[in-house]
Amino acid sequence: MDSFILLVLVFAVVFFLYKKNNNSQEGAQNERQEHDTKQKPNFLILDTETSGLDSKSEVVQLSMLDNDGQEIFDSLIRPFGKIPREAIAIHNITNEMVQKENVPTIVHAIMQILQYVRENFPDNDFTLVGYNISFDTKMIIQSLSIAEKNLLRKSDKTFSKEEKQHLPEMIAALIEFVSVLDGSSRCIMREFKAFKGYPRWVKLIDAANESGVEIKDAHSAKGDCLMTIGVMNYIDQHR
Fold it and tell me: How many CA atoms lie within 13 A of 114 on its CB side?
């Protein structure tokens, strides 16, 4: 229990630092151009697969890579609702796969990512990158909110009774963490649209094809992260 309380306190400190940094840069972020790039020297590339697109949908797979495509986090995520057949047909992630004992919840996944960021980027000198990154962060935040409601139920044994007392504060800190990262993120989908002068955005697989990027494991979170890196590098090299 003591270690869990310490973890909550760490989250509170991180919440304060990120919130402070976010507030000091709020004006500049609001005026950011869609094609404004290379904000910081390091990138963390994020992608998710979800159970759908509506307000009840959850993240069912999450991957984060560094600049060089090295894995920081890559796992299926255990949702609290069912994955419909339409979503399974796209990413091939079944309900049986995500309900295995070793599959983490979104809470545990973001806790691990936050710990990585705290240890490797204490000065917040990185930019979160994704293809339609606002969708990914939105779904992570939505999934955290759904998880909180379900984890607090008496029938759920994921956390002890004592630990559940601290869950609201912890999840609030995780949501703020993701929100702040989204506020200074780089959306490769918007950048590719602007770079090519297209009237609307294009799918990642089409952007990768046009950029000469190898298309492998499309509609898996890690595979899409790798394609996003390729498209980002293509834009930066030809801009």
Answer: 26
